[in-house]
C-alpha cells in the first residue's frame, strides 16, 4: 500500500501535537502546574506516534518523487535529516520523561530537573520548525507533492517507456 499519499495529512498532526507538548511543558514548568505537566506527557506520547507516522509516510513520499533537481534534492535531504532528528529527539525525551513520571521513586527527581525539560521543549520546537521550514520549501518552492509536479513525473515516465520498448525490440532484432 502506498502510504506516501498520507504524508501531507499526517505530518500536520505531528507538528501540532509536538508544538502543543512544548507549550504545555513550558507552562507546566514555569508555573509548577502538575496538570500541565501530566497533560504534556500525554500529548508528547501522541506527538511521537504522529511523528513516527510522518517519518514513515515521508520516506515513501520521497521514494515516490524521483523528479528532483539538485536544489530540491538538497532541500529534501535537509527535510529528511531534521525529520529524523525531531522524531528521535522527542522519542528520547518521552522515554526519559515517562520513566521519571511513571516510576514513583523517580517522580521527585523530575521536580529537581524540570528546567532541563523546559530547555528540551524549546530545542524540540526548533527542530519541528526546521523540519516544517524545509517541508514547506519542498512544496511551495519546488512543487513537490503538487498536482502539476505529479503530472510532470507521469509525463516523463510515459515519454521514457516507448523509448525503452523500442530499445528492447532493437536488441531482440539484432540477435
- N to C succession of SSEs: HHHHHH
Separate helix tally? 6
Q: In angstroms, what is the radius of gyration?
A: 22 Å
Would you tell me the overall average pLDDT? 86
Unreliable stretches: none
Label the structural class: mainly alpha
Strand percentage? under 5%
Cα end-to-end separation: 39 Å
Task: Say how many strands there are.
Answer: 0
Helix coverage percent: over 70%
| Main sheet summary | none
Shape: elongated
How does this model look, in words?
Helices cover 87% and strands 0% of the residues. The protein has 175 residues and is mainly α. α1 packs antiparallel against α5 and α3 (70-102) runs antiparallel to α5 (114-140). The two termini are 39 Å apart.
Summarize the structure.
The protein has 175 residues and is mainly α. The protein has helices spanning 7-30, 34-64, 70-102, 104-112, 114-140, 147-174. The chain is elongated and about 80 Å long.
Which labels suit this protein?
mainly alpha; 6 helices; 175 residues; single chain
Blueprint (SSEs and pairs):
Elements: H1 7-30, H2 34-64, H3 70-102, H4 104-112, H5 114-140, H6 147-174
Helix pairs in contact: 1-2, 1-5, 2-3, 3-4, 3-5
